[in-house]
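Slide 14.
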Amino acid sequence: MIFNSILLSAATPEVSGEMNNIKNLSLEDFTAKIAHSIVDFAIHLAIAILVFYTGKFIISRIYGIVTSILLRRNVDRSLSTFILSLVRMVLYFILIVTVIGILGINTSSFIALFASAGVAVGMALSGTLQNFAGGVLILLLKPYKVGDYIEAQGYAGTVTEIQIFHTIINTYDNKSIIIPNGGLSTGSINNWSREDYRRIDWTISISYATVLTPPAKA
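Slide 15: predicted structure.
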């Protein structure tokens, strides 16, 4: 009895009232309540699964529509890749929050928990956030674009993709090099494709005998 009183005093008033209600129920009422809870949860679970797969279908359609709009407007390939990745992440986040709300979980507490976890993860992944900020700066300032031949961070190659966190280049010997955007946004970049023309210096070696030997007389 002492242990039960300690538990009831430590619990919240809602939990204490629910425990008292359960104690006053008969076996038949308790079984009926459990069965009703299971049926109610099963219905919500089925609705959540239906909403999840319907949302995935809608997200894929929206993704296709946004892709076609970007293609029709001839948006830069690197910028369109960034926009499509951002759209996909935002839509899936909204879908997950909606499904959690259907299951009966308090979404406001979930969002607050997600925000707190985001701050902690952001502090732990400061380098990743730097790469994200670098990707945004690269897409806005455009020091290079997809198809340019660049030399940076000790590598040289043709830019094939500009993603949120890194840039992928293809070297002359057909190697795919992944370079973080943080270093690219703050370091030096040699963009060989920026100008239409450039000077090429040729070094030709000539022996002294060739220079000093007089030409033969006819």
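Speaker note: Residues 27-72 form the longest helix (46 residues).
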